[in-house]
């Protein structure tokens, strides 16, 4: 027998034992057992029931395991500031979107003065593309719309926020906001999935759907959104799944989420996490703080009265 002959798989009817290509009637549930016709499938149903249920259970366990491997995998790192090349802060107050060129820069680079070729400080310009700063909110929105036209995911996400809130001259339209967030998410902006999940959680313009909440927050988490993953941690914590909650929180702490660090501290005080867990979280957060620190960012932060999440 040749090697090719050994690789041939012959289908066998689970009821009568018939072999051949015509044995192609597969069990609709487990997709494992094959039969030569519907009659054999019906006759064998009572014998196959337990094995079928076992196949389905094992398949579900394998699917859940693969899903968790993907869900708890370390997400891709956030992009560094394109000017200073330092890690971008997680807090929304730590960075700014530039509608002129579509770049997201850190607050330190936004705060720093811009110089001309002779070293003189010039009027406020974009630190990246040197475009003059917008003179009004209307001009900023006009620039943002131009970025939307070239599929800039951050601009599309921001436009969705305008429709959600009914601000800056936009009518309040949850359907339009949801449409834009979907588009932004598909283009790679993870935060959009957090907003979609929150929409289904609160029922703003849609029916409350907990399955969709979980689905979109998981999409956001796997793409690096710390807000979405923190929300998943809260869900697991409320359901008593402490190990899963801790896994989410550890990942988000590494991503710079202070709320997750506070959550691990509370878990430790209640006995739901170990001292080692809390120590690890503190160390990860200190590493994050060290990577985002700069003199210009500190100066920019000193001028703000409070921090809040984006």
Structure description:
Helices cover 55% and strands 4% of the residues. The chain is mostly helical and 310 residues long. The chain has a domain at 11-71. It has a two-stranded antiparallel ribbon with strand order 1-2. The chain has a two-stranded antiparallel ribbon with strand order 3-4. Helix 8 (210-222) crosses helix 9 (226-238). The chain is elongated. Mean pLDDT is 91; it is low at 305-310.
The largest β sheet comes out as: 2 strands, antiparallel
Please, how many helices? 13
Strand order of the largest sheet: 1-2
Rg from Cα: 27 Å
List the helices and strands and how they pair.
Layout: H1 3-6, E1 25-26, E2 34-35, H2 38-71, E3 95-98, E4 103-106, H3 107-111, H4 137-149, H5 153-165, H6 174-186, H7 191-202, H8 210-222, H9 226-238, H10 242-254, H11 258-270, H12 275-292, H13 295-302
Antiparallel strand pairs: 1-2, 3-4
Helix pairs in contact: 4-5, 5-6, 6-7, 7-8, 8-9, 9-10, 10-11, 10-12, 11-12
Give a quick precis of the structure:
The protein has 310 residues and is mainly α. The protein has 13 helices and 4 strands.
What brief labels describe this structure?
310 residues, mainly alpha, two-stranded antiparallel sheet, 4 strands, elongated
